[in-house]
Amino acid sequence: MGMTMAEKIIARAANKRQVKPGEFVWANVDTAMMDDLLGPRVVIAEHIKRLGDQIWDKEKVVIISDHYSPAANITQAEILQFTRNWAKEYGINKYYEGLGPCHQVLAEKGFDIPGTLMVGTDSHTTTAGAFGCFGTGIGSTEMLGVLVSGQIWLRVPETMLFVWHGKLQQGVYAKDIILRTIKEIGQAGATYKVMEFAGSCIENLSVDERMTIANMAVEAGAKTGLMAPDDKVFAYLESIGAPKGTPLYSDPDAEYAQKFEFNADTLVPQIALPHEVDKVVDITEAEGEVIHQAYLGSCTNGRYPDLVEAAKILKGRKVHPDVRLLVSPASRSIYHRAVREGIIEILSDAGAMILAPSCGACLGLHSGILARGERAISSTNRNFVGRMGHKEAEIFLASPASVAAAAIEGKITDPRKFL
């Protein structure tokens, strides 16, 4: 029996010829990423001293401050200061702050390498799966063990296969693909399983679009979301001077726990209603719902093509007077490109407030918190109670185009009418 891509990556990391779902292995970690939220300050700083201040390989450790940057209060400022100082004390030279959400920074700095195993103290480390890298989120205690030993104890997960045939129509995007997929299986439908995405539609997507899908695999409970690395991935890695790694692919006779097939030709814009990510409907079923804030950004949908799609809709138009449109590019480099090519000017002229590349608004830490009773449409990945501010606020999740369209009308609307 053949192996899936995920099984092959774990087998390589565990120095085994073959692994099977349900088997427990000690796997060697290729990249360990910590952020400021669940990084050194939580468990690691206290206990690593007790364990002899030993880090197995400083070159494989990355620290990215993104959740509290830029700091909104003294507590956040001190967390950033602690994280910054800890990285210096332990000689971690791959420390980044103010560059944007960690998963975008990891991709831009060349850490998402095909065939490798990445662990991170953020659940959306699954984003690396767009490159054929087994990226998965872990807790601070697990990360402590990784820092000391370079290994992690894993149960080999089963893999679910999601095949998307056909081609997306105008006004329909990768965000709609993943929302529709999660609707199919539910928010716990892939718990401790791998979601592998394949099919002609996935192959036609850009690397940026694939990252959106892999990013949200965890919203169905997945251990990671994987896609076969191809020439688009290799061209991207070459463009940033990163190695192509050792790409691994699922065997034709690999065994899957479940298989699902979808037709992209008939997919229409989707939207997740409050307060569940799997409470997904066609956007036409939610038309007319009033919103007060529209947020475009995050590690899910703040990349350059996302800003471009929003700009297409907003060009020559104005944000509704009762709506705050917040735009946070997913990284500093994306921000710079959007400035150079006039995208930021279009968004700003329409009435958008341009924020620093950060996670702040996505999880309600700073830069755009919702008040009691307010409703937001967001291009982010989560909409549970209290996610972006007050627990009595409501969040709708949709594509950047849908966010832009709602910002203009002051209510949820089908973005295709503007394209």
Automatic annotation (TrEMBL):
Q: Where is the Aconitase/3-isopropylmalate dehydratase large subunit alpha/beta/alpha domain?
A: 68-410
Q: Which UniProt keywords apply?
A: 4Fe-4S, Amino-acid biosynthesis, Branched-chain amino acid biosynthesis, Iron, Iron-sulfur, Leucine biosynthesis, Lyase, Metal-binding
Q: Main EC class of this protein?
A: lyase
Q: Which family does it belong to?
A: Belongs to the aconitase/IPM isomerase family. LeuC type 2 subfamily.
Q: In which pathway does it act?
A: Amino-acid biosynthesis; L-leucine biosynthesis; L-leucine from 3-methyl-2-oxobutanoate: step 2/4
Q: State whether keyword Membrane applies.
A: no
Which PROSITE patterns would you find in this protein's record?
Answer: ACONITASE_1, ACONITASE_2
Oligomeric and partner information: Heterodimer of LeuC and LeuD.
**Whose protein is this, by species?**
Thermosinus carboxydivorans Nor1
Annotated protein name in UniProt? 3-isopropylmalate dehydratase large subunit
Q: What does this protein do?
A: Catalyzes the isomerization between 2-isopropylmalate and 3-isopropylmalate, via the formation of 2-isopropylmaleate.
The coenzyme or cofactor needed here is:
[4Fe-4S] cluster
Q: Which domain of life is it from?
A: Bacteria
Q: Which GO terms describe its biological process?
A: L-leucine biosynthetic process
Q: Which reaction does it catalyse?
A: (2R,3S)-3-isopropylmalate = (2S)-2-isopropylmalate
Listed binding positions for [4Fe-4S] cluster are: 299, 359, 362
Return the EC number. 4.2.1.33
Task: Report the cofactor remark.
Answer: Binds 1 [4Fe-4S] cluster per subunit.
What is a GO molecular function of this protein?
3-isopropylmalate dehydratase activity
InterPro entries attached to this UniProt entry? Acnase/IPM_dHydase_lsu_aba_1/3, Acoase/IPM_deHydtase_lsu_aba, Aconitase_4Fe-4S_BS, Aconitase_4Fe-4S_dom, HAcnase/IPMdehydase_lsu_prok, Homoacnase/IPMdehydase_lsu, IPM_dehydratase_rel_enz, IPMI_cat
